[in-house]
Amino acid sequence: MEDNHHRVTSLDTICIHGGWEPKKGEPQQLPIYQSTTFRYETSEQMARLFDLEDEGYFYTRLQNPTNDFVAKKIAALEGGVAAVLTSSGQAASFYSVFNICQAGDHFVTSCNIYGGTYNLFNVTMRKLGIDCTFIDPDWDDDRIRAAFRPNTKCFFGETISNPGGNVFDIERFARMAHEHGVPLIIDNTFATPINCRPFEWGADIVTHSTTKYMDGHATQVGGAIVDSGNFDWVSCTHQDHGATAGAAATTAPGIERFPGLTTPDESYHGLTYTTAFGRKAYATKLVSQLMRDLGSIPAPQNSFLLNIGLETLHLRMQRHCENAQRVAEWLEKNPRVAWVNYCGLPGNKYHALAQKYMPKGSCGVIAFGLKGTREDAISFMDRLHFVSIVTHVADARTCVLHPASHTHRQLSDEQLREAGVAPDLIRLSVGIEDVNDIIADLEQAMG
Ligand SMILES: *Cc1c(COP(=O)(O)O)cnc(C)c1O
Q1: Residue nearest to atom 12 of ligand 1 (CA)
Q2: How does pLDDT run across 55-81, given as a tens digit for each residue?
Q3: Furthest-apart CA atoms within the chain: distance in Å
Q4: Which is the closest atom of ligand 1 to the Cα of 113?
Q5: Which residue intervals of the chain bear CATH 3.40.640.10?
Q6: Stretch among 1-15, 304-318, 338-352, 384-398 having the lowest mean pLDDT
Q7: Fold of the domain spanning 315-446
Q8: Edge-to-edge strands, sheet with 399-401
Q9: Considering the entire predicted model, what is its pTM?
Q10: Ligand 1 centre and the CA of 97: distance in Å?
Q11: How far away, in angstroms, is 358 Cα from ligand 1 center?
Q12: How many angstroms is it from 155 CA to the middle of ligand 1?
């Protein structure tokens, strides 16, 4: 944040003032540039834009000021050099990997990931010739190392997995990715940068479904990809720009592991992204190649709504975590409840990791199972009053979902377990209502 805001480093203040910084006589609130295109006065001016010689707007599929101001705020919150908004979290997950993988390549991913991402990686990306290996983060280092191949291009994981609530050991997996000369990509949707900043632990790229806490009001579907600028695509090493030390890659420097970034792009007059854009090479390629060819930009109107959500992200996350902690403690003591997975509980398997990566709190999402059958879970949900059954999560309103019957319906029981989802798992997304009302609704529904 430059100019009048140059001393601002607090995330709370960035939530309000990041991105759009109005000057004299400009609107206090971020303007919606609801325009497909932007006008120039000479043909030469426009030609220079297409050659990437000048910066400027020309077509909203590539860049739009409203989208860019919101991306700038998200980049500041994560501590990255650049961010790109997408029309969904799914598009963000896809682009984050596809920007550095092509047919014949391979990547390694945690098996504890969102069901939509699991399908994207396991089915759709395989059809594009991009192979992946799912690892269980609970495996020991040697077993995980064995998943890496000479054509492996990245390692992917979720800070807190949706819906299981497992916490990913970012520092450990960043080290392992860097040993193999590849970046670590983290989906930070559930923690949000308010509670965890993966770049501080060695992650290289962060993705978000902004549909969730960042928006927080269920108004728009969107995604974001943030580039730390710390991965050197030429030497294939993580460069220390202030946070953690870089590990030496096993790859000899000079290998073209990421030719899309380090060799001339014929579709851009032979420009080489790493040479032309340095630490912003990854983000620039993502916009000028993937957005150009595949689209998936958010509507400026949606980015405006997202920005309003971001203005209160810090307040909402604090309340989500306080409420979820109380609800998790209540569930744990309830005789009708078989098990509770919430990393804020001291007895939880992921408690120590949560304390390390998210000392201020994790998120509002709790996974639990009821004693009894699958039908008992379903009738519990049907009896809820204001707690709603929705295919949504991480929202101001408390909501509930049974992944085996809903979001993960297309997975077999074995695939469910592989994705870290027990068949009896109920995902409870604790909102920011009065916690006593939330508990009362759960209590009456348990009968
Ligand atoms: C919802 C979600 C996604 C997909 O995002 P959409 O905005 O629904 O496309 C990806 N990752 C996580 C962790 C999510 O919760």
Answers
A1: 114
A2: 889 899 999 999 999 999 999 999 999
A3: 74
A4: 13
A5: 11-307
A6: 1-15
A7: Aspartate Aminotransferase, domain 1 (3.90.1150)
A8: 337-341, 365-370, 426-429, 399-401, 388-389
A9: 0.94
A10: 15
A11: 20
A12: 18
